[in-house]
Amino acid sequence: MDNRTDGSLISREASTGFKGLLILLIILGHNHFACTDIYGSGDKNELFRWLYSFHVNCFLLLPFLYGSKPITGKRVWKDFVKLYIPYLWVFVLCAVVYALLNKNVSGIGDYANAFIMGNEPMLKDAIGFSFPWFLPTMFALLVVKGVYDWGSRWVKIGLLVISTTLWVLIISGVTTRYEIGNYVPLAISQAFIFLPMGVIVSVIIKFSRGKGNLIWFLLFALLSAMYLLLFDTQYDTLRTILQFVLPIVAFVALYGISNYLGRSKFMRLLGDYSLQIYLIHTFIFNALMILAMRFAINQIAGAIITYILTLGITLILALLIKRWKWLYRILFP
Known about the structure:
Layout: H1 12-29, H2 32-35, H3 46-51, H4 55-61, H5 73-102, H6 108-117, H7 120-127, H8 134-150, H9 153-171, H10 177-181, H11 188-208, H12 213-230, H13 236-255, H14 258-262, H15 265-272, H16 274-294, H17 299-323, H18 325-331
Helix pairs in contact: 1-4, 1-15, 1-16, 4-13, 5-8, 6-7, 8-11, 9-11, 11-13, 12-13, 16-17
């Protein structure tokens, strides 16, 4: 059954299965046993670099498949509550955990600035974790997309001009997306960075409808190899261009298998609870990592064991929270 809403380029089942795959990749990307030299230098490896070139980005591109949704006050408020309430409590939880582990508390100004800006490095410095950046960025992107869907042709052109200008500055090495984010509140600059990627994705999928998927996977593999080979070289411009292109190609390639993902009950289950899993799993993994390192577990074994346990424990917690309706309404309104 398709369950496709008017104007949508993906069915509900396929979208949910797509989210399920992405959350599996995100958990893998956060697994230090799999993605870092955990017992040595602590440096990130190629798996980390590859995953971070597209996995969370693809989550942010999904709304561009859900059809045109012009901005309204009611929609903005609904999205704000849905995303900023979890952002608030996870921000506080991260701050408390970081303060307890490091016996250090940031100033009120640092907390307020990090929360308002929603920029990854600022969050990392203030609360010890950067992953909450996704929530304000998704909200800002939904607002910008709503304006884009609502606006006239000139409004659309204006928004894309802003986005293109930001990317020109980034690609030319004048600034980075993180430096821009230090000066633009509410993750608005990040929304403009993802806007053209989402528009391009929707255009490609609208006209291709998942055809030529093998070609997209081959292109994804080729560009991924190029990105990894160029990572520690002087070819900064080309690598930055790939940071724009790779999420688009990865998204279109994965879209081609989204119907298969949507047929999997397990993938749909993960997709249904993807937000809860995203916000909870980091705490579970870090606890497991501390325990595993205390017993000096082999890195490969540690990667497998902590990955399975992180996913299992987090999913169980997500299901339990959903059963406790009063708690669920507070944490995920």
